[in-house]
Design goal:
It contains three helices and ten strands. By secondary structure, the protein is mostly beta strands. The strands form three sheets. It has a five-stranded mixed β-sheet with strand order 8-9-4-3-10, covered by helices on one side. A three-stranded antiparallel β-sheet has the order 1-2-5, with no helix packed on it. The chain is globular. The two termini are 20 Å apart. 34% of the residues are buried.
Amino acid sequence: MESKLVVHSGGCHCRKVRWQVQAPTSIVAWKCNCSDCSMRGNTHFVVPRGRFELLGDSKEFLTTYTFGTHIAKHTFCKVCGITSFYTPRSNPDGIAVTYRCLDPGTLSHVEIRYADGKNWEKFVDQSGIASFSKDQSKIDSTQ
């Protein structure tokens, strides 16, 4: 599914939180059924943390919610409440970007995969999701 990286822009509903992310034009997005994602209706794609950048004063408008293991950091806008990105438990070294929060025009294809967050440990072990926060170009150059 990997294609050339492009810069996607996006953010929350009120536009107080804005960011850019480097990702392919064709992505794999995960629709999760965990207690948090299912309530929010979140479908996200995962990138290495180094490919994500908050813009301007966006950090001032963010707040964070954690629960359970407190590994996932569910960030959302203090003004409009939208979670446009967060740090997922499956990929604490990466960023999960809510694909519907991307500005239009830079995605060519979205493959939706289902994440069984209700059976998290089994899902993470079997899905390969942890690899999505790794920089594939660095992995490929070491082989």
